[in-house]
Amino acid sequence: MAKTLIIVGAGPTIGLSVAREFGRQGFNVGLIARKEDNLSKLAAELVEAGVPAVKTRVADVLNAQQLNAALNGLRSEFGSIDVLEYSPAIGFPNYKATLDVTAENAQYSFNVLVAGAITAVQNVLPEMKARKDGALLFTAGASAMTPIPFLANVGIATAGLRNYLSNLSKALAPEGIYVGSIFVGGVMKRGTEVDPDKIAGRFFELYTRRDKNEEVISGPPPKGPPPAGR
Length: 230
Known about the structure:
Blueprint lengths: L3 E5 L5 H11 L3 E6 L2 H13 L5 E5 L5 H15 L4 E4 L16 H29 L2 E8 L10 H21 L4 E9 L10 H14 L4 E5 L12
Parallel strand pairs: 1-2, 1-4, 2-3, 4-5, 5-6, 6-7
Helix pairs in contact: 1-6, 3-4, 4-5
């Protein structure tokens, strides 16, 4: 039976590229995002690219009930979730510079990038632990390592996410579950060092080799806040 990849926070750049790369390797693909029209466009592109099977579910990562229902629904359709990739976008209006950080916008970034990730991980872990196999993949910004003033609230969250993933990888390695993350420095753009297709290829290498748990891929630094959407 074909393995299944689920993308949480599917978008037209990294989400689409990772789905297409794993689809080329014979994976079925499930997509979760907030908007049905976005999902329909992505699914059509993946079907055209020859992905064996594509299913979609609408859910907001800020709503744990919705996210769990979407993951459970896709699991029922495919029979299993073998690889989870988590990469929701914060969205341009929610990027805040250092002196504009508030408890509220810092909490929002945390909820999208960290709390949603924890919800997704807790949903898929039981079956992965039962099989003693599976993979959890995450895309985030390099502000997790290097503070970027105009992404101050996001950096707080990504640093927390990196800490969580470091602990998670150590805890799950004995269970046969791989945790891998790519931290992207620069705005993702096709034809550059941070081309989503190149990043997707690196994800598949990380998944198959499992020889390290994180990688930083850097391109030209952005001159201002990056565009919305992944």
